[in-house]
Specification:
Blueprint (H helix, E strand, L loop, with lengths): L1 H16 L35 H13 L7 H13 L3 H13 L7 H13 L3 H13 L7 H13 L3 H13 L8 H12 L4 H13 L7 H13 L3 H16 L79 H13 L3 H16 L3 H13 L7 H12 L4 H13 L7 H13 L3 H13 L7 H13 L3 H9 L3
């Protein structure tokens, strides 16, 4: 009697756990689709108890992370796919990731992009950000900056901090059909900084230091550099130290006719790096070495008062006197940076004159700055050909920043004919000299297969080298990719 009751209880429990007869289900054991009874018509396996999408996803997580079971990526992928097919966005994203990197499933780029898109359309912030990154970098998907911005904005509107930072980076640099807009860049950086994004804090400091999109303010620059340094940004810490050193040095502008004494000659500051963007990550449109930072608020070099003409009744309109240069190229370079910092048209013109004087005397940092100014049209008409000439002068003498930026011009065909092989050679030389941006650019070339054979392995290798050299955009890309 007891045995009969037990059998009845088991039968009832099985009945409650199994789907009703004639419900359509797919067999997890052999994959046969369209079963309508309680057992698979192909292999005879019993139907599985019905579970929610969230439960399938949690089961997948258990196998993925080894929570209570041995780690089994194939088993995890199986359960993620069940949840994904039921419309669970997080499962779609994780399944896409597994197809992208071949974890538990055969590597399949098409399936990866398909699931990323489905996850993004289903509201996954992570998928939106990943999809935007792929469009920006041209990895797995054809490069499309408009789509990148669309998905970054979608993720940012949902509060995704990395997307806010990425938008700031895009608008700070400009990308093909996306116009450079410092004001919009500052807007997105501020939103990301409010959520403690260290890279956004660092770039805000740079914008305040240079007066781009915000009012120039050394104090605000220091404030944001300090916050970024506390958040772990090495680049921000370096810039903060330089600003503090310049402030404590209290360098004064010499009189136009005076030759500075040797004891007063300050050290030349190093050409700074630029981060790309996580952001950056990390876009695989090559990022140029940034325009060097501005120094502390300068005093404008005094212009001698012109003499009146001999005509007693009317004073002739005085002609503007030439910007004076010293006989010391180091001083001219520093005076050029001081003038450049003003951010005004006259400041740029004075800086151009100082840099030319120093560059003609062999100062390589001044060659770099002249290349930057001609490239951007600061204090002069934009002239990529002249920018290339000045970069070439510095590159021929081993200046890493000049080599990297000249490589960029060859890569983009600005002032010179497009030459990927030449760009590759210049990036290599700059990377050998320790330039982290050049290392990053090499990774992009390998990922796109321009000038070199496309190689994911080499792209990752150079991203890792760039990260080790302090490139934050490379670090962000690798982090997103799980390296």
């Amino acid at each position: 009697m007891k045995k009969t009751v037990s059998l009845i209880m088991v039968s009832v429990l099985l009945f409650l756990c199994l789907p009703p007869a004639f419900a359509v289900w797919d067999c997890a054991n052999c994959g046969h689709k369209g079963n309508t009874g309680n057992y698979c018509v192909n292999c005879g396996a019993a139907a599985e108890p019905a579970m929610s999408a969230a439960e399938y996803y949690e089961l997948g997580d258990q196998y993925y992370y080894g929570n209570g079971v041995a780690v089994d990526y194939a088993e995890a992928a199986k359960w993620y796919e069940k949840a994904a097919n039921m419309g669970y966005a997080r499962a779609m994203y994780d399944l896409a990731y597994m197809y992208e990197y071949g974890k538990g499933v055969a590597l399949n780029v098409l399936k990866a992009t398909e699931w990323y898109k489905k996850a993004a359309e289903s509201g996954s912030e992570d998928a939106m950000f990943r999809l935007a990154s792929m469009y920006e970098e041209g990895l797995l998907l054809k490069k499309d900056y408009a789509e990148a911005v669309r998905w970054y904005k979608a993720a940012a509107d949902l509060g995704y901090t990395g997307a806010m930072d990425a938008l700031g980076n895009i608008y700070e640099n400009g990308l093909d059909n996306i116009k450079q807009d410092y004001t919009t860049a500052a807007y997105w950086y501020k939103k990301a900084a409010a959520k403690n994004n260290g890279h956004a804090m660092y770039r805000l400091g740079y914008l305040y230091e240079n007066g781009q999109g915000v009012g120039a303010s050394i104090e605000m620059a220091k404030k944001w550099y300090s916050d970024a340094a506390e958040a772990g940004s090495k680049d921000a810490l370096t810039r903060l130290k330089r600003l503090n050193d310049l402030s404590s040095a209290s360098v004064k502008t010499p009189k136009p006719t005076a030759t500075p004494r040797k004891t007063a000659t300050p050290r030349k500051t190093a050409t700074p790096k630029k981060t790309a963007t996580p952001r950056k990550t990390p876009t695989p449109t090559p990022r140029k070495t940034a325009t060097p930072k501005k120094t502390a608020t300068p005093r404008k070099t005094p212009t001698p008062t012109p003499r009146k003409t001999a005509t007693p009744k009317k004073t002739a309109t005085p002609k503007k006197t030439a910007t004076p240069q010293s006989s010391n190229p180091t001083w001219d370079y520093l005076l050029g940076r001081t003038s450049y910092m003003l951010g005004t048209n006259q400041g740029y013109k004075d800086a151009l004159s100082y840099f030319k004087s120093a560059a003609d005397a062999g100062d390589l940092d001044s060659c770099f700055m002249l290349g930057v100014m001609y490239e951007k049209g600061q204090g002069t008409t934009r002239d990529y050909r002249k920018a290339a000439d000045w970069y070439l002068k510095g590159a021929n003498q081993g200046h890493a920043g000049c080599m990297n930026n000249l490589g960029y011009l060859y890569y983009k065909g600005l002032g010179v004919a497009v030459n990927y092989r030449k760009a590759y050679e210049l990036y290599n030389k700059a990377a050998d000299a320790g330039n982290d941006v050049a290392m990053y650019n090499l990774a992009i070339m390998y990922s796109e297969g321009r000038g070199v054979e496309q190689s994911r392995t080499n792209a990752i290798k150079w991203l890792k080298k760039a990260r080790s050299a302090g490139n934050e955009t490379a670090a962000q890309i690798l982090s997103e990719a799980g390296y």
